[in-house]
């Protein structure tokens, strides 16, 4: 199950550089996870200052 970024994201960008498979990209409103690439490692959740990435 891929992680998803909820609407508390403040678009700081910290998660994108920590993703080992480059699954996180800046979307129109906030950062977004490509659910077909995400390997469920949890790095994004660990570095996010607001707890926006959650298991989907
Ligand atoms: Fe990338 Fe891991 Fe977050 Fe999935 S859980 S988006 S693989 S950092
Ligand atoms: Fe959004 Fe958290 Fe990623 Fe920053 S680290 S872009 S707040 S999901």
Automatic annotation (TrEMBL):
Coiled coil: none
Gene Ontology CC annotation, any one: cytoplasm
GO molecular function: 4 iron, 4 sulfur cluster binding; metal ion binding
Domain (4Fe-4S ferredoxin-type): residue spans on this chain: 1-28, 29-56
Cofactor(s) in the UniProt record: [4Fe-4S] cluster
Transmembrane segment boundaries: none
Pfam families: Fer4_7
Position of the signal peptide: none
Keyword annotations of the record: 4Fe-4S, Electron transport, Iron, Iron-sulfur, Metal-binding, Repeat, Transport
PANTHER family: PHOTOSYSTEM I IRON-SULFUR CENTER, PHOTOSYSTEM I IRON-SULFUR CENTER-RELATED
Function: Ferredoxins are iron-sulfur proteins that transfer electrons in a wide variety of metabolic reactions.
Protein name as it appears in the record: Ferredoxin
Organism field: Clostridium cellulovorans (strain ATCC 35296 / DSM 3052 / OCM 3 / 743B)
